[in-house]
Amino acid sequence: MNGLAFDSPGRLWALLVVVALLGAYVLMQRRRSRYAVRLPGLELLASVAPKLGWRRHLPAALMLLALAGTTTAFAEPTANVQVPREKATIIVALDVSASMAATDVSPDRLTAAKSAAQQFVAQLPPRFNVGLVAFSSSAAVVVPATQEHTAVTEAIGALSLGSGTAIGEAVASSLDAVAEVAGTGDSAPAHIVLLSDGANTVGRPLSQAIGQAQQAGVPVSTIAYGTAQGVVQIGRQYISVPVDSAALADLAESTGGRSYSAASGDQLKGVYKDIGSSVGTKTERHEVSGGFAGVALALAVAAGVTAFLLSPRLV
Fold first, then answer.
1. Distance of CA 50 to the CA centre of its chain
2. Are 195 and 95 in contact (CB under 8 A)?
3. Alpha-carbon distance 262 to 244, whole Å?
4. What pLDDT, on the 0 to 100 scale, is given for residue 208?
5. Alpha carbons 272 and 122: distance in angstroms, whole number
6. What pLDDT does 37 receive?
7. Whole-number pLDDT of residue 175
8. Distance CA 150, CA 154 (A)
């Protein structure tokens, strides 16, 4: 269980009683075995009594476990629990530079990226504000953050290629889109999801963009998309466009986001699914004593049932 802790840890000392009961049970079994050999007619009794072996200890073991579970519940355990967010602002930033025409990802990087991004947006909770930023040699807010997710998916489908890769500008434009939502009085947490296949080539440096994101308290999760074998044709020239993940990873780690890599359309959909799970939930401390008490009750019932089933009945 993630982050298990106890509001009343002092009560766990009661587990020593369970340990003492275990010791008493073991001692009793040893004494019983020692005295049993003195009884007359033991061989005759053993021939007609059922041979239970280790199973005769099962009811006691289950009951001791039930007591341990009850004691743990008494200590008021708590754990980190993922619960759905009611609201959030998600800005999807997509690289539409010329290198996204590379066909190392079928049918090409941009087409596969658009498909995966559309699926990602469609699966976000309806109350989430979602915006779209496209960037190449510059960056622009294509769709301001809105709860009309269909408008965002349609805009993603209409994106076309440009030139250059202005990742720093994309972060700045995304932060502007977040600020617009905050200006309306919406205090929902925000997250930027940025996909690119290259390094920052134009516009403000990434260090400046990182500082802005840190100041705004908005994490940026990045997806380095493509393979080392990517090639695009510009005129009669074939230019290698390998994915550059180092700068994107630094951007994510420096702003509190997560960095991902995807080398295929299927991998990209998996990445977006993971991001959706993380941004769509929040971690809260919840009391989980009910779970321990439920397990303890089940063990106690099992102890009673096994004791009844294993009890010797001679007719």
1. 51
2. yes
3. 12
4. 96
5. 11
6. 53
7. 96
8. 6
- Dmax over CA atoms of the chain, in Å, equals 104
Of the ranges 35-44, 47-56, 104-113, which is most confident? 104-113
Stretch 90-106: mean pLDDT, rounded?
93
Q: How far apart are CA 135 and CA 196, in angstroms?
A: 9
Indicate the residue type of 4: L
What are φ and ψ of residue 35, in 5° steps? -80, -25
Cβ(172)–Cβ(139) below 8 Å: yes
Residue 254: count other Cβ atoms within 10 Å of its Cβ: 17
Query: The tokens 């369970």 sit on which residue?
Result: 18
Domain map of the chain by residue range? 15-77+288-310, 83-284
- Got the DSSP string for the chain? -TT-EESSGGGGGGHHHHHHHHHHHHHHHHHHHHHHTTSTTHHHHHHHS---GGGGGHHHHHHHHHHHHHHHHHT-EEEEEEEE-S--EEEEEEE-SGGGG-SSSSS-HHHHHHHHHHHHHHTS-TTSEEEEEEESSSEEEEEEEES-HHHHHHHHHT----SS--HHHHHHHHHHHHHHHHHTT----EEEEEEESS---SSS-HHHHHHHHHHHT--EEEEEES-TT-EEEETTEEEE-----HHHHHHHHHHT--EEEESSHHHHHHHHHHHHHHHTEEEEEEE-HHHHHHHHHHHHHHHHHHHHHHS----
Average pLDDT over residues 251-276: 89
| Chain position carrying tokens 């972060």 | 171
Among the ranges 48-57, 182-191, 287-296, which has the highest mean pLDDT value?
287-296
CATH architecture of 83-284: 3-Layer(aba) Sandwich (3.40)
What number is the average pLDDT over the span 251-264? 92
